Each structure stands twice: as C-alpha cells, then as structure tokens.
C-alpha cells in the first residue's frame, strides 16, 4: 500500500500517547475520553474509527475524500467523522486524533501539553 494505511495497533498507540485518555469497551467498539468527555471510537472489526471534529471540518473531509471519510453524526457544533484506517496515513490520523482530543480536553490540559 505504499505507506498508506494505519493498523488498529498504530491507531491505539496514537490515541494512548495523549494525556489523561481513558478507554472503555462496549459492544463492538472501544470509546476514548479525556476527563470524561468523549472524542473517539474504534470499531476493530471494520478497522474504522470515529473522531470528533468541527462540523466544517467534517463536511470538508467527506467532500474531499469520501472513500476515506464519512459523516457519522452531528451534535451541536461538532461533526463526528468515520475514518477508514486503510485509507489514511499515520501523520494525518495523528493530527486528527490530537484535534479531536483537544475539542474535548480542558483548556489548561491542552496548554500544558501541546
């Protein structure tokens, strides 16, 4: 695949590098939170993840690469995006995961980390 694609293990390493991330398993997926606020999900069986984004980012990603991204749902000012791990590079995914984390993390935690 010429460097394209991220494994479930690589995704987990990206997520768990961020401070104060907790994970919880549910039927069919793993959810990720920072201080009790959700920012991502992993569906290992389908090798997809759901990430919190702004609605504008959600729409731009889906319009640009519908083979990689799809709309999961919107909630208020946030638009959750489904990402197919096979279609994304690790650095782009790391940026998206960090952004999703920062949309949920308290300001002081973000400032002390990034």
TrEMBL record:
InterPro entries for the chain: YjbR-like_sf, YjbR/MT2646/Rv2570-like
Task: Check the record and name the Gene3D superfamilies matching this protein.
Answer: 3.90.1150.30
UniProt-recorded name of the protein:
MmcQ/YjbR family DNA-binding protein
Kindly name one Pfam family recorded for this protein.
YjbR
SUPFAM superfamilies from the xrefs?
A: YjbR-like (SSF142906)
